[in-house]
Amino acid sequence: MTLVLPELFGVGSFWYTVIWVAAQFLIFNITANLLACMLVDTTIRMELLKPPLDPDLRARWHMCNECQALVPPRSWHCEVCNVCVLKRDHHCRFTCCCIGHHNYRYFVYFLLYLMIGSFVAGILGGIYLWNVHFDFFYRPFTLITVFVPAVSLTLSPSWESFYLLTYLLTWLAFSISTSLLLVYHWPILKLGSVAKERRSRNYDLGLRANMEMIFGRRMYLTWLSPFVHSELPHDGINWEPVLTHLTKDD
């Protein structure tokens, strides 16, 4: 926004304004969803767990030796967080917290907006480097920066080397977010499962209902901001497999 846009579009022009506003929206959602993902508690500590009296439902609960507590189905202990997490998917190394029932929405939007934002930044950055400043960056030293950025910054600590490093990190962010969201997590999301249940359809309620379990009853508005309240249709505790519901209905 401060370096590339002014050189590609005239300041105050239509496309400059459109991209600048879109960039502000993306940066806000990347940052805010990341923080929400880290700050929203999705562990068993946030709930007063009351095992059901029904013996069939109670049989699905299990004892966690580390937490010394009877925990509900789909809750598993995290060795890093040292606590059981409701509908635990995984421990995210980027957010340094567990992804579970109450913060899954923010994790998905963080990856989605990171993917979109890094793609747009990568395209604009590519035009800036390889078109506008083609004469400067089209040289052998650029290859050193691409393949060995630490060496390049040591031998030639310049803004140009830093621009190249930022450009590489942008596409790295795009690659990681795309592979995590589309390749790994989308097959899990659409089945209403979590990483530990990757190939299971025990909790598959259909695509729309599965999305509602993550994004809440106002899921069509949640893309605007993590501050949009959207109540989840489930408490994250009393889970019953789909087959159980069908049997009861029959």
Automatic annotation (TrEMBL):
InterPro entries: Palmitoyltrfase_DHHC, PFA4/ZDH16/20/ERF2-like
Domain of life, source organism: Eukaryota
Enzyme superclass (EC): transferase
Pfam families linked to this entry: DHHC
Transmembrane segments: 14-40, 110-130, 162-186
Recorded topology in the membrane: Multi-pass membrane protein
Gene Ontology cellular component terms for the protein in this record: endoplasmic reticulum; membrane
Reaction(s) this enzyme catalyzes, per UniProt: L-cysteinyl-[protein] + hexadecanoyl-CoA = S-hexadecanoyl-L-cysteinyl-[protein] + CoA
The keyword Transmembrane belongs to this UniProt entry's keyword annotation: yes
Chain ranges of the Palmitoyltransferase DHHC domain: 61-185
Localization, UniProt: Membrane
EC identifiers of the protein: 2.3.1.225
Annotated domain remarks: The DHHC domain is required for palmitoyltransferase activity.
Family statement: Belongs to the DHHC palmitoyltransferase family.
Protein name: Palmitoyltransferase
Species: Drosophila persimilis
